[in-house]
Amino acid sequence: MSKIILLDSIRSMQNVWAIFRNCDWAWFDKVLLTWTCPTPPRNDISKTALWAEWFIDWEYYKDPFEIIGKLKNEGYKIWSVELDERSIEYTKLFEKAEEKVVLVMWNEVSWVDKKILDMSDEIVIIPMRWKKESLNVSVAAWIVMYAVK
Fold it and tell me: What is the pTM of this model?
């Protein structure tokens, strides 16, 4: 199985580095960084990532649409985490076993681009119990990564 996470314009270095660490725990193979995401190497990464940036493969793409299209053509299923009328609960991912998955996480200010949602095979939500509509992106990534087989 090949598992990739694509971070769409996540500007917070601490969130990006925490997701690198999540990848090690969840056996994700690669991090794709797009638009305004910070990239290694940086002196301030290792405290949060615990050096995961040294052994988790990563690539940077200015344009997320191009790399998502390429990965779809290679047989990857695109699963975006977003609140949308088509969203399924993340727990449904436990029932889905895919050989090649790209998990798309959003910039919490502008959310996942509609074009990416249209390219997605699944749109996934984490139901909220109170007043907020979202979790911190690194926490949300951890929860959904746990559900990806």
Answer: 0.91
**CATH homologous superfamily, domain 2-147:** SPOUT methyltransferase, trefoil knot domain (3.40.1280.10)
Strand-pair partners of 62? none
Q: What is the DSSP letter of 102?
A: E
Task: Please give the chain's pLDDT, 149 residues, in tens.
Answer: 899 999 999 988 888 888 988 988 899 999 999 988 888 776 665 555 455 665 678 999 999 999 999 999 999 999 999 989 999 999 999 988 789 999 999 877 777 889 999 999 999 999 988 877 778 999 999 999 999 97
Do 52 and 31 form a contact (C-beta atoms < 8 A)? no
